[in-house]
Specification:
The protein is mainly α. It has 2 domains: 130 residues, no CATH class; 47 residues. Helices cover 81% and strands 0% of the residues. The protein is built from 8 helices and no strands. Helix 1 crosses helix 6, helix 2 packs across helix 6 and helix 7 packs across helix 8. The longest helix is centred in the last third of the chain and has 62 residues. The protein is extended and about 75 Å long. 12% of the residues are buried.
């Protein structure tokens, strides 16, 4: 959600974030923990693992591919973040939160994510996102239908526009000449 966007912004920002009040940063770090954003940081320890597993699975039963898959897996395992890098990113994300939200707002959001309703929201969010994807796909299908219709009318609309432009041209010329 918002934390993922903030992480991306942080990763593309300058190397060091500006200093922020310690209590304000702690409130942001508490929110990161309560909102399960820490799970995202944990995934950063081995960010290529899902891709490697998927690639290896595609070659299941193919012994001749095993040497290159082993080499691929080893090379991809080198792409990771150290604990120090992850902590720096976590802190930088917290600082971004402090730039956007007041300390009391961060504390209020943390209380929400620790509440029964907040925990339920976090638990159900994958289902919500999946259902939203289905709705988005339906919207895309409808828009594609509209696009096809518009393409079909394209030549006719272009011809109608040219006819209108040609009809307006002499009238404009007469108005200029008088």
């Amino acid at each position: 959600m918002l934390s993922a966007l903030l992480l991306v912004a942080t990763l593309s920002a300058a190397d060091s974030a500006p200093a922020a009040d310690g209590a304000h940063v702690k409130a942001a770090l508490d929110l990161i923990a309560a909102s399960r954003t820490d799970q995202m940081f944990d995934q950063m320890k081995n960010p290529t693992e899902p891709m490697v597993k998927s690639t290896v699975a595609q070659f299941q039963g193919c012994e001749s591919a095993q040497p290159v898959l082993a080499e691929f897996s080893k090379a991809m395992s080198a792409v990771s973040f150290s604990d120090e890098q992850i902590e720096k990113i976590r802190h930088d994300v917290a600082v971004v939160y402090t730039e956007v939200f007041s300390q009391s707002e961060l504390e209020e959001m943390t209380r929400f994510f620790k509440s029964a309703t907040g925990v339920k929201m976090l638990d159900k969010m994958p289902d919500v996102m999946q259902k939203m994807q289905a709705a988005q796909m339906q919207g895309q299908a409808t828009m594609q239908e509209g696009y096809k219709i518009a393409q079909g009318f394209g030549p006719r609309l272009e011809e109608a526009y040219k006819t209108c432009a040609a009809a307006a041209a002499p009238a404009e010329g007469q108005a200029d000449g008088q």
